[in-house]
UniProtKB/TrEMBL annotation:
<dbReference type="InterPro" id="IPR036390">
    <property type="entry name" value="WH_DNA-bd_sf"/>
</dbReference>
<feature type="domain" description="HTH La-type RNA-binding">
    <location>
        <begin position="1"/>
        <end position="87"/>
    </location>
</feature>
<dbReference type="Pfam" id="PF05383">
    <property type="entry name" value="La"/>
</dbReference>
<dbReference type="GO" id="GO:0005634">
    <property type="term" value="C:nucleus"/>
</dbReference>
<dbReference type="GO" id="GO:1990904">
    <property type="term" value="C:ribonucleoprotein complex"/>
</dbReference>
<keyword id="KW-0694">RNA-binding</keyword>
<protein>
    <submittedName>
        <fullName>SJCHGC08042 protein</fullName>
    </submittedName>
</protein>
<dbReference type="InterPro" id="IPR045180">
    <property type="entry name" value="La_dom_prot"/>
</dbReference>
<dbReference type="InterPro" id="IPR036388">
    <property type="entry name" value="WH-like_DNA-bd_sf"/>
</dbReference>
<feature type="domain" description="RRM">
    <location>
        <begin position="141"/>
        <end position="202"/>
    </location>
</feature>
<dbReference type="GO" id="GO:0003723">
    <property type="term" value="F:RNA binding"/>
</dbReference>
<keyword id="KW-0539">Nucleus</keyword>
<dbReference type="InterPro" id="IPR035979">
    <property type="entry name" value="RBD_domain_sf"/>
</dbReference>
<dbReference type="GO" id="GO:0006396">
    <property type="term" value="P:RNA processing"/>
</dbReference>
<dbReference type="InterPro" id="IPR012677">
    <property type="entry name" value="Nucleotide-bd_a/b_plait_sf"/>
</dbReference>
<dbReference type="InterPro" id="IPR002344">
    <property type="entry name" value="Lupus_La"/>
</dbReference>
<dbReference type="Pfam" id="PF00076">
    <property type="entry name" value="RRM_1"/>
</dbReference>
Length: 227
């Protein structure tokens, strides 16, 4: 239901996986004694706009959360527990390739994290049309790998020039055990590792000289090829 989608998304915004990357949100949290994130700011996030979330809906959703609560002044959302340290990220992250591609026009908001300072500024100036396909791809990957353990973050790299989705993803788990379990069940022979993901169209090669770029994290993470 839409209620559960909103709950899941706001819990993600304040999750360890997101806050360990989102410097903008961290800075906003430091402005409050309770380390909360203002409701007004959350409502400007791309996915909140896409789901037509208003202040009343957000407050009602948070009441059902086990990890979040409404601040005493009613103006922010606060974590119930402090942030945890799960250890080195590379030991909990796998690289997944052979994923379905998105047209270049759908790649703008393909990651779960749409809470950067840039996004907030865009939202304050205009309504942003969010591609449902990009959101669904992120959710699909998360749902698929949650079978093996709690997923903290899904990252879908893009070409810098065309902004097109590259066709592979980094999936960060809460524990290294879950990451190893995922690789074991979705195992790929080493000879079949596709480190270089070819562009969708030939013309994209000349437009994107970084098309042969190897993920910086790839050398340190486990590999799983989606069949």
């Amino acid at each position: 239901s839409n209620f559960n989608k909103v709950l899941r998304q706001v819990e993600f915004y304040l999750s360890e996986g997101n806050l360990n990357r989102d410097r903008f949100f961290k800075q906003e949290m430091q402005k409050r004694d309770d380390n909360g994130i203002p409701i007004a700011l959350l409502l400007k996030c791309n996915r909140m706009i896409a789901m037509n979330v208003n202040e009343d809906i957000l407050k009602n959703v948070v009441e059902k959360s086990k990890i979040l609560r409404l601040s005493d002044d009613g103006l922010a959302i606060v974590r119930v527990l402090p942030l945890s340290d799960f250890g080195p990220r590379e030991k909990r992250t796998i690289l997944v390739t052979e994923l379905p591609r998105l047209p270049s026009g759908m790649a703008e908001n393909v990651n779960e994290n749409d809470t950067s300072q840039r996004s907030a500024k865009l939202c304050s100036n205009q309504m942003i049309n969010i591609s449902s396909a990009s959101c669904e791809l992120t959710d699909w990957i998360r749902n698929m790998f949650e079978e093996y353990g709690e997923v903290l973050y899904v990252s879908l790299p893009r070409y810098h020039r065309s902004n097109s989705f590259r066709g592979f993803a980094f999936v960060e788990f809460k524990t290294s055990k879950s990451a190893r379990k995922a690789v074991k069940h979705m195992f790929s022979v080493v000879d079949n590792e596709h480190w270089l993901v070819k562009p969708t169209e030939t013309s994209e090669v000349s437009d994107c000289p970084e098309s042969a770029w190897k993920p910086r994290l790839a050398a340190k993470v486990s590999f799983s090829q989606q069949q």
